[in-house]
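re: ur question from the group chat, yeah i did fold both. here u go
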Amino acid sequence: MTAVNLGIPVMPDTLTERVPPRPENQDLIDRFGRTARDLRISITEKCSLRCTYCMPESGLPAIPHEQLLTADEIIRLVTVAVNHLGIREVRFTGGEPLIRRDLEQIVAGCTRAVPGIPLAITTNAVGLAHRAQALADAGLTRVNISLDTVDRARFARLTRRDRLSSVLEGVRAAKAAGFTPVKINAVLMPQTLDGAIDLLTWCLDEGIELRFIEQMPLDADHLWARANMVPAQTLLDVLSSRFTLTEIGREDTSAPAERWTVDGGPATVGIIGSVTRSFCSDCDRTRLTAEGTVRSCLFSDRETDLRAALRSGANDEELAELWRGAMWNKWAGHGIDTADFVPPQRSMGAIGG
């Protein structure tokens, strides 16, 4: 198996391209006119599943505990992001965020520190049945659940774990806890394409919004090939054989999912065409890894270390200024379809979704 490199990439001393000076602006702007309002924070590299498009079979190398951001450090950086940088939505990812026993503490601390800011998680829902209500009580506002198939045998093959029943219990617990909407994210894979109709049918029956996502070259084993991925149009053709789909577009320019009503509505299905229908020009996201580095793009190995500055006594504005500099250097786009495209060193499980 290909070795997985989880270490923080080395920053070049100089950038190969000429970067203009950053104008005076307190927000997280970049040189292509985009402003980040959406913060994604990976809080662990560990996961209870081993999805083939994300994790190696043995899992990712463990991050030493002392290198992980603590609950208090996460709350501090969220506070800086909201109060100094204009962030308006926060999502906790992984790995699997439910692996963190202090997730409720993190959510509750952020709720107190930045009241009114939506706080969400992206989770595989294994174990969510036992924690959904506590997370809601702590102030979590939204839940996105990763689920690629409702066929038990296929689920076990894809995730290398026979845990579908636990995931479905977690979905229903999220609904019972009052999270609205509960969204399902499904990665498009050749081996699950013929189950897409069954998955959408199940979501319609459960009153849950489904979004399909084109598989991106972020697998830990680096086996992704453009020729093998399922494009959005192929999925639309499959779904249209059973449902009447009417395009309604995106909710706003920064929302990645294109949406269709199903059989006249009100139910909808979304497709995130990350590869074939790139939305890089409207990207409004900034990311923190579990070790506390800013990652301005999923596909860029440039990272700026906030943890070291934070632990060295930097004040809020000094942390904010480091973050602003990292985002100013953000790429124009991932360039997956270019001849010189090189996948990032880190996989999705290490970066955070």
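okk and heres the other one u asked abt
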Amino acid sequence: MPTHEGDRVTTLELFFDLAFVFAFTQLSRLMAEHHDLIGVVQAMTILALLWWTWNSYGWLANLAHADRGWVGAVMLAAMGSVVVVGVTAMHAYRALEDDLFAPFVFLGAYLAARIIHAVSFAAVSTPELRRQAFTTSALAIIPSGALLVAGAFLGGGWQVGLWAAAAAVEPVVTQRMSASADWRVGSTAHFTERHGLIVILAIGESIIAIGTGVASVPMSGGILAGIALALTIAAALWWAYFRQLAEEAEQALIARAAPERAHTARDGYTYLHLAIVASIVVTALGVEESLARIASHEPLGWLAASALAVGLAGYLGSTAWFSRMVASRARPFRAFLGAGVAATAPLLATLTAVPALGTAAGLLVAGLIAEALVGRRGARTRSTTSG
């Protein structure tokens, strides 16, 4: 059954998203275990592959109700594939001689989810769009799948490079193929809520990181302080998106004409939200690594400090860009705040865990409060002028 404007996210879609929450936690583990830039690149590549998968089913459920008829069975089958992707993510980059099976199980599950979607999406598309929808899926899946298989066989640096290239294929193909197509957003409310929920689930992964970081550390006052600061960071991430952007962006998207709405939805949500979610995942790594060192008197180190600073900076920058792209509202203060937070990475690396978390949390909260106050003052000025 097709969706209509005003339809909202179903509980089946929330259930479906749990598989991605699990996969996100695995990616944090992958980065933490590698403890270097290669591990971050590997994890971000898998995150991009997961993102295109999640987004493809988001568009499917935006055109046809996810909990009605055969679409529900498709969502459950894809969920099973994504769970397998998450289970094998930690071993997806193993060298061929170490573990032949895991990379190909990972690829089989990933490609199964993508092929199921391609067939399903073509089936629910209008006759005018069916051919183009299937062509777009084929042009994205076939070359990226070939790169993924080649990378799994070659292993090592070749695998890292080829898999990163595979993750870049889909956004390029989708952008080119959808530029002239008559795509539509079935329900704007559903589409914006769907992306908001994946953001909140990603923030939830940062909450999981708190427990992971302190699980093997004896309880102390420092632990409690670190937990409080980590929760403050998570709450600030929530505030920055849901109290300051989400509703405004939804109303702006609804106000656009149908063709422009579809293109804005693609650029602002399908593409830009990957940067938002990736920033949250990197921030969660910084929080987890910081809390794991909470009992140590040693400096935080470059990995935790860089993850914390770059993750928060990326989140601030990408949400500012999202506001400008979708709601046509520039947020220069937030962009400058992001640049300032990124610049603190060398300082955070020299601090112990609690002061580092306190510095990051303090800058983030103070900056967002200042942005809100400036925004309210500007709104009052505009109201007075117009009156």
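fwiw on the second one: The CA atoms of residues 59 and 303 lie 36 Å apart. The chain has two domains: 7-183, 186-387. idk if thats what u expected
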